[in-house]
Amino acid sequence: MKAIYPALLAGAVLLFCNHSEAQRRRRAPNTNDTISSNYVPSAAFAPLYYTSNGNDYHSANGSPGPKYWQNRVDYTIKANLDTVGKTISASENITYTNNSPGALPFVWLQVDQNTYKEDARSNFPTGVAATQHTNGYEFESVSLVQNGKAEKAVYVVSDTRMQIRLPNKVAANGGKVNIVIKYHYVIPGNFGNRTDYTDTKNGKIYEIAQWFPRMCVYDDTRGWDTLPFLGSGEFYLEYGDIDYSVTVPWDMIVAGSGELVNPQQVLTAKQIARLQQARNSDKTVMIRSLDEVTQASSRPVNKGTLTWHFKMLNTRDVAFGASKAYIWDAARVNLPKGKKSLAMSVYPEESAGEKAWGRSTEYLKGAMEHFSEKWFTYPYPVAINEAGSAGGMEYPGIVFDGIRDKGLGLFYVTAHEIGHNWFPMIVGSDERRFAWMDEGFNTFIDVYASDAFNKGEYAPKRDGEYAPGGGNPADEIIPTIIDPKAPTIMTAADAISERYRHPIAYFKPAFGLILLREQILGKERFDYAFKYYINNWAYKHPTPDDFFRSMENGAGEDLSWFWKGWFYNNWKLDLAIIDAKYVDSKDVKKGMQITVANKEQMAMPFTVEVKYKDGSKQRMQVPVETWLQNKAVTLSFPTTQEVTDVYIDPDAALPDVKRANNHFVVK
Ligand SMILES: [Zn+2]
């Protein structure tokens, strides 16, 4: 197969060959004038104006500006899990640092447990209200320490938000306020969806998340980000250090985000030794086996409670699982530049076995090593895959996957949920508004993680998130694109109904990045630009424009036409071969004129392939600029022998809504 690259394409577009002005005026109407098409070049290539110009905070080149600032939150939390009352009670000490250039008269917190209340706003958007409820957060006390003075705080709770009105403003440029909140809440059962408890043979599993009031993000784009938690739009959180302790009955294992600070107090000597062994092992090492789950000797004490103390640095959040039913295993994760992390899995007897969670740690390790090598090094000491009923939920350093997941399904969900540590937990976008910046980006990196794992054991990725029919993604995205009711990628996260959640927040943006990488920019330029975006915004708060600008600057391309057609609209693409004939029918070596029309609103670069009589093929790449002025173009293809067939998009890589007109039989 021969490829012809752009340098050879000069003059390929017949309309712009060396005709004189007089010749041009005399030419007869051609396909471009007569074709019926919905394509409007001036609309596809109209400049896409950014919502604001680059500034000192968000630079035009896609990077944080010289005056970029971000507030910081550090938390110290002491919590108690009461397995009788099914409650969490805790005392939380928040240190909030205002790095903004303005003083703050009040602060806002997210109080997500209130989403389970009977009158919560989350009961309304989908048209189907929840049938089970809790009372949400019950605040015992809220107090402030400001300038060394402690006092009761004045606060207002509105749905899943809490405003604390301060007696003194938090000073600009580094002013601090301390907030101390004592609270408790009843843990939702299975209906919790992202946080819950569930029964297993050897005891309940608790999955504890959204479990402490967390500061809302205050940023330079809209000030306080106070969108309520409605159940679909996920989280937008500040970075800082979280030091937390969880007290549980002696027989429970706690698997938490971050580093376990006091293993001597909560593990047996044997378990500490096995963990050390796992830190040096690429093979999964059992820390607590199935047999040991029911043995009292697998706990350092056999009565009362134990307090598990964890610390996670530079993180948006922490979550944990707790159960006496956990089997526990671990293996080393090898990161770039000789760095290491530890992959661990905790799961009940029901999930055990090589066909199921027995391979969980191997899956977790494989995905982490791939993402780290390809995009950004995993920054935390530990990552945990936890089995429970939340089935597919992500937090920094820990993911909750389904007890009954196994094989391929367990691999996909593990890679996906841990992939969220890159988007949006390292690159800290606002997933409450822009679901595509976490689900879409993560699904995109998962596609290559599946290809890479164990020589393609589970490749290619095909699941509910990406080409759910198991076929060609370029074909499977089409029903969504042609569906007049489908929302666009830029639709607010909570305004996307469940029916469109996977197609629009996961599949379409992920496949859009595949198109960008494999069809528009090429892998090398895409990877450089995407890493430029990741490095620019790691531990920061990028907006959609920051992403678009990063890609345009890093790759050196105005991609307005693509953002507009694919992200802001569901524009259709239909390329069609109108005609193909030899320049000189007596000499096939003089080349062929191939007329291609663009019948719908979207533009794309494309590949033309001719198949010769001897079965060999030749290709030509045609740039998107082909569509700057025309609805139809006639390309000069340098044929070398008799042609039997002409194809456009021969690999079916483009989301062309009508493939039948991509093939032309030469008579
Ligand atoms: Zn996800």
Determine the number of helices (DSSP H or I, runs of at least 4 residues): 15
The hetero compounds bound to this protein are: zinc ion
Mean pLDDT: 94
Largest sheet: 8 strands, mixed
Number of strands: 32
Note down, in words, how this protein is organized.
With 667 residues, the protein is of the alpha+beta class. Mean pLDDT is 94; it is low at 1-19. An 8-stranded mixed beta sheet has the order 6-5-9-3-2-15-19-17. 47% of the residues are buried. The structure holds zinc ion. The site of zinc ion has 4 residues, from helix 9.
Explain the layout of strands and helices:
Elements: E1 2-4, H1 21-26, H2 31-34, H3 41-44, E2 72-82, E3 87-98, E4 104-110, E5 138-146, E6 149-152, E7 154-158, E8 161-170, E9 175-186, E10 196-198, E11 205-208, E12 214-215, E13 218-219, E14 223-224, E15 240-249, E16 253-256, E17 259-260, H4 263-266, H5 269-278, E18 285-288, H6 290-293, E19 305-315, E20 320-323, E21 327-334, E22 340-347, H7 360-374, E23 382-388, E24 393-395, E25 398-402, H8 407-419, H9 439-452, H10 473-476, H11 478-482, H12 498-520, H13 523-537, H14 544-555, H15 560-568, E26 575-582, E27 592-598, E28 606-612, E29 617-622, E30 632-637, E31 643-648, E32 663-665
The structure holds zinc ion.
